[in-house]
Amino acid sequence: MVSQNSRYELTVEDSHEYGLSPDPFDKTSINQLILDYLQTFARFKTNAITATWNGVYAKLTNGENHLFESPESGVYIFNGLGGAGMTLSFGLAEEIIAAL
């Protein structure tokens, strides 16, 4: 997945690594595989990576797959998207607000 902002910068979807203690550092070889695949169907002025980041996704240990809390009136916390936040967060937020 790729999304573009108003300055024509691209945010390229990520890879995922799972485990009790995943490596906190990006692997250049995996980033290159993603860029190589992107270039099979898209063309860009440059494919230079300007920044990377690592997300850490909390996992519940009580068998539940999501958490929904309202710590005070008008404030809501939902966690349960795992690594799919870029894809699902806005649609999910819309559904939660409509249901309230």
Q: Could you characterize the architecture of this molecule?
A:
Residues 20-97 form the FAD dependent oxidoreductase domain. This is FAD dependent oxidoreductase domain-containing protein. InterPro entries: FAD-dep_OxRdtase, FAD/NAD-bd_sf. It holds the Pfam family DAO. With 100 residues, this protein is an alpha+beta fold. The chain has two domains: 1-55, no CATH class; 57-100, no CATH class. It has helices at residues 28-38, 85-99, and strands spanning 2-4, 10-12, 67-72, 75-79. The strands form two sheets. It has a two-stranded antiparallel sheet with strand order 1-2. The protein is globular and about 45 Å long.
What attributes characterize this protein structure?
100 residues; alpha+beta; 2 domains; two-stranded antiparallel sheet; 2 helices; 4 strands; 26% helix; globular; FAD-dep_OxRdtase; FAD/NAD-bd_sf; FAD dependent oxidoreductase domain-containing protein
Secondary structure blueprint with pairings:
Elements: E1 2-4, E2 10-12, H1 28-38, E3 67-72, E4 75-79, H2 85-99
Q: Using only CA atoms, what is the Rg?
A: 17 Å
Q: What is the succession of H and E elements?
A: EEHEEH
- Mean pLDDT comes to 83
Distance between the termini: 30 Å
The rough form would be described as globular
Would you identify the regions where 5 or more consecutive residues have pLDDT less than 50? none
Percentage of residues in strands: 15-25%
Structural class call reads alpha+beta
Helix proportion: 25-40%
Number of helices: 2
Task: Tell me the number of structural domains.
Answer: 2
Sheet with most strands:
2 strands, antiparallel
Number of extended strands: 4
Protein name: FAD dependent oxidoreductase domain-containing protein
Domain FAD dependent oxidoreductase: 20-97
InterPro entries: FAD-dep_OxRdtase, FAD/NAD-bd_sf
